Amino acid sequence: xxxxxxxxxxxxxxxxxxxxxxxxxxxxxxxxxxxxxxxxxxxxxxxxxxxxxxxxxxxxxxxxxxxxxxxxxxxxxxxxxxxxxxxxxxxxxxxxxxxxxxxxxxxxxxxxxxxxxxxxxxxxxxxxxxxxxxxxxxxxxxxxxxxxxxxx
Length: 152
Prior knowledge:
By secondary structure, the protein is mostly beta strands. The chain is built from 2 helices and 9 strands.
């Protein structure tokens, strides 16, 4: 009796997962390991919040005008409106990804992203069934440092 040759990877009889059978990512699960060179491509900088406005086309977003040390104001859109009042943000120093490709979010250009931590993944959130209420905490330096300072 002969054994049939192994099936090519991805064929219906293969044990390798395919796009259709791969498990969906679990919210909050660790992400894949990245090489240091990939991480080093991020330009993390300190920025000071100069102005806070409600985004005109999104209930969860603020438009933030930042001093990033470049001499030119930077605008970012941030989904933190449910967690912070404008007066709590004004004048604060935050950490941003400065070299993220610009993108238009509901009609407003965002040139970067602020960094924040949360106790519950974004896709979940607290509910009446006893789940934890989602908290969002903006990352900021412990002491005063000028806008544009490099985070490493």
